[in-house]
Each structure stands twice: as structure tokens, then as C-alpha cells.
């Protein structure tokens, strides 16, 4: 015999369970909105939250708006879609792991408190797509660099170079060069392996280059044309040259400060630099050069022009700090100037890339 009371209770339980599941699904769909699509692959607010968690890990999401983060995610994703269609892909696993370990080490050292639970798989993926974007942009920049109108002197400031040579002699130069060029990828270690397998004698050398003007004309032209693998032949000799370069960075604003101690307050005339320089041997006057970046905030804000001064006073004496000279490292100024040009072109290249591949990869912004 059926127990109607029990059956009624079971129906109520089932109804409640279905109701809760329905509500949960609706809430989840509300929370996880589609932001954009690329080739019909949907990217949602969940991907956005994962990106925020990644940016928190690398420490670069301060003051970023939601719109900026989404646009940046679109950019990185488009570059990743492009990368997936490249035939001879570079494997980034080792680079990604090294970057992750370095950031993690620094975060632990600084006792960083994360706003999100660390998801290693998510962080690895986001490091990878950012690294892929960076490398693609660098390669595209190499193709455009000749349009940037940089002088030889500026190029010397822009890069620091390491050059590796593989030198050999052979009576079969043409055949060796033909085989080398037929390799899938020409890199330093691969050439070494190739030569060893062929029992070809060779020697290597490596040197740091600070000034391109000292190089052979042909080698210098290849470097300026961004040919990072160069094969030079002469008689029965071959030089296979690999050029490694990276951007140079500098610091370089120097402040020449005079420090004057006095029991009484001094007027402006007594603190003029031309007067202080004539009294360098006076006991209460000292002068020293400092890196401007190392000065405290009060000095940075107030010592702008020559003869500007700051008075640090206490009950016993007044200590005046006077700015008497500012020297700028010309290399720094040139480097800033060049970097602005480079950054300008990188932004244009990225913008053009996004514009082109947004159409090719069918980008659709839904709720961005």
C-alpha cells in the first residue's frame, strides 16, 4: 500500500533540490558572462578573474581598470591564436617555469600576501601567452626598426651585444654551407652538434661588443639589418656568427650638493653657489655628488634649479642643503629618447596586429 504522506514529502524534497539546482545554474550564468569570442571560443568573466589572479601574482594590476584588463587579455589571446598556427613553434615550457620560479622567489622574499588562491596552471598559461606576445612583437619590431631613424650612436646606446663565433676551414665550403642552411633551425648549439657529427674541426670564441663602429663593415651592416645569424666565407674559411642583443638601461642624474651648517639663520646671498664654491675649505661647508634617485623626497621636490636650498633646523643649528649643479648622463637622455621611439612603434605594431587578426580570428566583443 502506498504511503501518500511519505510520497508527498519525497516530491517536496525533489522539487526543492531541482529548484536549488535551477537557481544555482541561473546565478552561475549571471556571474559568468561572455566578454568576447575569438573563432567562436567564448571568454568569460571567469577568464577575467583568472587574469586578475595572475596579475596579482606578477604584481602588475595596480590601478588597472576592468576595461584595460579585458583589452589586454584580448590582445594576449589574439597573439596566442596566431602562435598556435605557426609551423615551427618554440617550446616555452622551460622559460615559463623559470619566470614563475623567479617571481615566486621574489614574492616569498617580500612576504607577499596574495588576494587569490595560487593556481599554478592558470599562472603558467598567462605567463606563456604574455611571453609569446612579447616575442612576436620583438620579431615584428625587428622588421620595422629601420624606419625608426636611429643613428649609429643611438644604436650603440640602445643595445648591448654579445657575439659568438664558430670558425672553421674546409675544402668543401659550399657543401657545408648548403647543409647548414638546410637545417630546420640554425642556432649556436645546433651548429656545434652538426660539425661534431661531421667530424669537422672548428673553434669558437665569444666577446662583448660595446661599440658597433669598431666592427667589420659587413658584420656591422648585418647587425643593423637585424640579421642575428650571419655566415661569412673567405677562401676556404667560414665564420658563422650569432649575435645576441638586449636593451641597455642606465641611471644618470647627478646632483652636486653643498651642505652648510650654521648656528644662525643665513640669508639667500650667503647660500648662493658662487659664494659657497669660494669657501670650500671652510669647516662648516661640505660638498658632495649624489645620485638624484637616492635623495629623500623633500630634497627631490625642492631642489629643482641651481641655488635652490632646503633648511633642516633644530634647536642647536641650521643645516642648509643647496643644489649647485645638475649633471645629466647624455647616454641616459638618449636612451630615454630612443626607448620612447621604440615604445611608440611597439604600440603601433601591436595595434595594427590586433586590428588585422581581430578580423581574421573573428573577434566579437559581447560584454567587454
User: Radius of gyration from the CA trace?
Assistant: 32 Å
Count of individual domains: 4
Amount of helix: 40-55%
Strand content: 15-25%
In words, what does this structure look like?
By secondary structure, the protein is of the alpha+beta class. It has helices at 4-31, 45-58, 66-84, 93-109, 120-144, 152-158, 173-181, 188-197, 217-224, 273-277, 297-302, 330-360; strands spanning 34-38, 41-44, 159-169, 203-209, 229-234, 237-247, 253-262, 285-291, 309-313, 318-328, 364-365. The chain folds into 4 domains: 1-31; 36-145 and 360-365, no CATH class; 152-247; 253-328. It is built from 12 helices and 11 strands. The strands form 3 sheets. The chain has a 4-stranded antiparallel β-sheet, with helices on both faces. It has a 4-stranded antiparallel β-sheet with strand order 8-7-10-9. It is flat. The model is unreliable at 21-30 (pLDDT under 50).
Blueprint (SSEs and pairs):
Blueprint: H1 4-31, E1 34-38, E2 41-44, H2 45-58, H3 66-84, H4 93-109, H5 120-144, H6 152-158, E3 159-169, H7 173-181, H8 188-197, E4 203-209, H9 217-224, E5 229-234, E6 237-247, E7 253-262, H10 273-277, E8 285-291, H11 297-302, E9 309-313, E10 318-328, H12 330-360, E11 364-365
Antiparallel strand pairs: 1-2, 1-11, 3-4, 3-6, 5-6, 7-8, 7-10, 9-10
Helix pairs in contact: 2-5, 3-5, 3-12, 4-5, 5-12
Short description:
By secondary structure, the protein is α+β, with helices and mostly antiparallel strands. The protein is built from twelve helices and eleven strands. A four-stranded antiparallel beta sheet has the order 4-3-6-5, with helices on both faces. Strands 8-7-10-9 form a four-stranded antiparallel beta sheet.
Amino acid at each position: 500500500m502506498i504511503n501518500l504522506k511519505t510520497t508527498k514529502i519525497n516530491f517536496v524534497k525533489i522539487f526543492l533540490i531541482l529548484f536549488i539546482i535551477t537557481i544555482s545554474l541561473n546565478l552561475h550564468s549571471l556571474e559568468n558572462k561572455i566578454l568576447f569570442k575569438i573563432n567562436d571560443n567564448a571568454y568569460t568573466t571567469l577568464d577575467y578573474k583568472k587574469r586578475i589572479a595572475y596579475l596579482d601574482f606578477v604584481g602588475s594590476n595596480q590601478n588597472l581598470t576592468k576595461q584595460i584588463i579585458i583589452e589586454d587579455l584580448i590582445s594576449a589571446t589574439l597573439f596566442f591564436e596566431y602562435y598556435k598556427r605557426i609551423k615551427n613553434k618554440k617550446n616555452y615550457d622551460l622559460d615559463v617555469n623559470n619566470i614563475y620560479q623567479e617571481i615566486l622567489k621574489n614574492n616569498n622574499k617580500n612576504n607577499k600576501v596574495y588576494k587569490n588562491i595560487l593556481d599554478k596552471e592558470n599562472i603558467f598559461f598567462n605567463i606563456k601567452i604574455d611571453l609569446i606576445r612579447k616575442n612576436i612583437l620583438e620579431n615584428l619590431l625587428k622588421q620595422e626598426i629601420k624606419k625608426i631613424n636611429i643613428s649609429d650612436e643611438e644604436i650603440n646606446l640602445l643595445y648591448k651585444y654579445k657575439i659568438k663565433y664558430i670558425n672553421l676551414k674546409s675544402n668543401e665550403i659550399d657543401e657545408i654551407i648548403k647543409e647548414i642552411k638546410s637545417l630546420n633551425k640554425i642556432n649556436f648549439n645546433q651548429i656545434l652538434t652538426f660539425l661534431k657529427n661531421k667530424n669537422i674541426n672548428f673553434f669558437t670564441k665569444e666577446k662583448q661588443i660595446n661599440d658597433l663602429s669598431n666592427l667589420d663593415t659587413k658584420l656591422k651592416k648585418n647587425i643593423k639589418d637585424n640579421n642575428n645569424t650571419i655566415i661569412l666565407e673567405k677562401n676556404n674559411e667560414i665564420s658563422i656568427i650569432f649575435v645576441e642583443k638586449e636593451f641597455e638601461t642606465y641611471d644618470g642624474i647627478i646632483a652636486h650638493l653643498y651642505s652648510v651648517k650654521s648656528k644662525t639663520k643665513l640669508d639667500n646671498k650667503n647660500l648662493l653657489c658662487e659664494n659657497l664654491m669660494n669657501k670650500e675649505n671652510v669647516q662648516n661647508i661640505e660638498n658632495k655628488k649624489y645620485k638624484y634617485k637616492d635623495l629623500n623626497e623633500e630634497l627631490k621636490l625642492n631642489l629643482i634649479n641651481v641655488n635652490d636650498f632646503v633648511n633642516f633646523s633644530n634647536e642647536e643649528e641650521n643645516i642648509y642643503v643647496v643644489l649647485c649643479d645638475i649633471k645629466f648622463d647624455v647616454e641616459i637622455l638618449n636612451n630615454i629618447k630612443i626607448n620612447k621611439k621604440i615604445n611608440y612603434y611597439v604600440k603601433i605594431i601591436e595595434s595594427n596586429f590586433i586590428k588585422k587578426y581581430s578580423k581574421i580570428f573573428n573577434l566579437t566583443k559581447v560584454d567587454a
